[in-house]
Amino acid sequence: MSRPFRFGVNNTGVASLKEWQDYARKAEDLGFSTLIMQDHFGGQLSPFGALTAAAAVTSRIRLGTLVLDNDFRNPAFVAQEAATVDLLSDGRLELGLGAGWLQADYDKLGLTFDAPAVRMSRFREAVAIVKAFFTADKAVTFHGEHYHLTDLDASPRAVQRPHPPLLIGGRQKRMLAFAAHEANIVSISMLDRRGPDLPKPPTFSEKVAWVRQAAGPRFGDIEIHANSGGLRVTDDQRGAIAEVAERLKIAPDEVLQTPANLIGSVDAIVEQLQAWRETSALSYVVVPYRSMMDAAPVVARLAGK
């Protein structure tokens, strides 16, 4: 049985508390399921503080991170902050976590951008710590290769039990297989490296197949998510596709082979999303703030259906 569609909208750089809270109210009024904060350094608010401020002026919209870079914070701190946001929002947090991927952020912070295997090893331990924090009776003790906790107070207590929905995102098979075992929501990234000397990257459907294989019987309990930064409502679908193909240096017939690009009339985009749900179980789509108004009629047609 297909999951109903839901939609999130990503953060924007804002200049004031009023502007940010107005944006949060608008997203809720338009029917978006989730207000999303990214985790980068450059013209954006800090995730946990921004989500708490948004929670104060909304009542239904969920509050998500997509995704927190594991190397920026100790996982015990992440768990405490996340539990606080979930408590203060009356159980509306969706906690998105990742191993870290944008080297420019590491360079700005003076952090070593370790090899993928090292970042992945740290991330596995971090997820275990976060889950332990939410489910422990009183305290958490953990001794791994990268993190050590002794009798850490597991408070405050989150509203959602056993923990807020956990989203894990990635583009490589190893990360997506891990997400299939650990996450409630699996975010399929299509930010693969492209180039004439590189092999053709896997398709969205192929990546979902990795998740399905790794998840086994629990696949039906997983929500499949994608970022659609290329959503564009237009009557000139062919022209818009040609523009995207030129910018991405790909063939026009490849543009719509990923839900990262949703292009055409509202009817056409609705059909594209329904096809993605049918073939790849996609039901959760996040758009950037600049596309919020374009996406609104699509949200009105599909959200909850």
Tell me what you see in this structure.
By secondary structure, the chain is α/β, with parallel strands linked by helices. The chain contains ten helices and 13 strands. The protein has helices at 17-29, 47-55, 75-88, 103-109, 116-135, 173-182, 204-215, 237-248, 266-280, 292-302, and strands at residues 6-9, 34-37, 62-65, 68-69, 93-98, 139-143, 148-153, 166-170, 185-188, 223-227, 232-233, 263-264, 282-287. It has an eight-stranded parallel barrel, surrounded by seven helices. Strands 6-7 form a two-stranded antiparallel sheet. The protein has a two-stranded parallel ribbon with strand order 11-12. Helix 2 links the parallel strand 2 and strand 3. The mean pLDDT is 95.
Point out poorly predicted stretches: none
User: Which structural class best describes the helix and strand composition?
Assistant: alpha/beta
CATH topology of the largest domain: TIM Barrel
Number of strands: 13
Subunit arrangement of the protein: single chain
Number of structural domains: 2
Biggest sheet record: 8 strands, parallel, barrel
Helix content: 40-55%
User: For this structure, what is the CATH homologous superfamily of the largest domain?
Assistant: Luciferase-like domain
For the largest beta sheet, what order do the strands appear in spatially? 1-2-3-5-8-9-10-13
Q: Which sequence of SSEs, written as H and E, runs from N to C?
A: EHEHEEHEHHEEEHEHEEHEHEH
Please state the second-level CATH architecture of the largest domain.
Answer: Alpha-Beta Barrel
> What's the rounded overall pLDDT mean?
95
CATH class of the largest domain: Alpha Beta
